Amino acid sequence: MNALTQTGLMLRWQLRRSLESIPLLIVVQAFLAVTTVLGYKLLIGDVSPEMGLYLATGAPTVTLIMVGLVMTPQQVVQAKTEGTFDWMRTLPVPRMVFLIADMVMWTLIALPGMVLGVFIGAWRFDVELTVSPWVVPAALLVSLTAAAVGYAIAVLVKPAVAHLISQALVFVVLLFAPVSYPADRMPEWLQRAHEWLPIAPMAELLRATLDTSAFSMSGRSLVVLLVWAAAALVAVGVALKRRA
Questions:
Q1: CA 202 to CA 223: how far, in whole Å?
Q2: Contact 150/69 with Cβ under 8 angstroms?
Q3: With contact defined as beta carbons under 8 Å apart, do 107 and 229 qualify?
Q4: Which of 162, 165, 175, 179 could make a disulfide contact with 203, Cβ separation 3.0–4.6 Å?
Q5: Are 117 and 33 in contact (CB under 8 A)?
Q6: Where are the transmembrane segments (predicted)?
């Protein structure tokens, strides 16, 4: 049995195991996308055309990032606490197959909320997005990177700490990261910090592919994002092998 077949079988097994919670997770993501759009409108009041673009492209980004950085570590922590995480690692499949199947599952869960966020944002702020075909690989890269980082948090630190980190990341993503507003609105030290963290490059990449006429992405941000994705996957892979 080759690795692709093993990954497909493991993905089916993961989806069936999570069948009861997946509909609820998708509904939560859709609700998050809608509330992000409508909530920021209430908070800001009159929205300029520039801010409308940021909010319309920020809602799908928030949805993707939340699934990876918040829901993924919480679900992995729950599996570790229940013992199912250790049991699954006893299955006769390579650790990377186990990891890739999980990454694909979380990406599939995140995508419906992202699509809904795009439509709701464009409608609510009356903006016309110039969507690039590259939005599909961009969304997959953002989703996989966020899920990989979230997975690394859950695997590398104690469950209680991982849970607290995931809760703190909710506020960081919603309020203290340049996702739904320009980076120059933040203090300079926070702007410098986000130049090395993955959230701002994720938002920059999705903005640049959701509206090519208004946004672009620097090569440096893409490199930062790819480094975070690779580092998180390597860290998780090493941790899973050491603890097997």
A1: 11
A2: yes
A3: no
A4: 179
A5: yes
A6: 21-40, 52-71, 97-122, 134-157, 164-181, 222-240
129 Rama class: left (phi>0) / alpha (psi -120 to 50) / beta = beta
- DSSP 8-state class, residue 90: T
Q: How far apart are CA 215 and CA 198, in angstroms?
A: 18
In angstroms, what CA-CA distances link 105 with 33, 50, 161, 243?
19, 34, 24, 23
pLDDT in tens, 92-109: 777 777 778 877 888 888
* Side-chain half-sphere CA neighbours of 45 within 13 A: 0
Q: Distance between CA atoms of 208 and 41, rounded to whole angstroms?
A: 22
- pLDDT at res. 217: 86
Lookup: tokens for 236: 């998780």
The CA distance from 157 to 189, in Å, is: 27
- Asked if residues 106 and 73 have their Cβ atoms less than 8 Å apart, the reply is no
Tally Cβ neighbours within 10 Å of residue 88. 17
Nearest CA to 173 out of 200, 209, 153 is that of 200
Report the b/e string of 178-210 with b at 16+ CB within 10 A: bbbbeeeebeeebeeebeeebbbbbbbbbbbbb
Q: Is the distance from CB of 65 to CB of 179 less than 8 angstroms?
A: yes
pLDDT over 80 (residue 51): yes
What is the domain partition of the chain in residue ranges? 3-243
Q: Are 221 and 201 in contact (CB under 8 A)?
A: yes
Burial tier of 73 (Cβ tally within 10 Å: 0-12, 13-18, 19+): buried
Six-digit token pair at 37? Answer: 């759009």
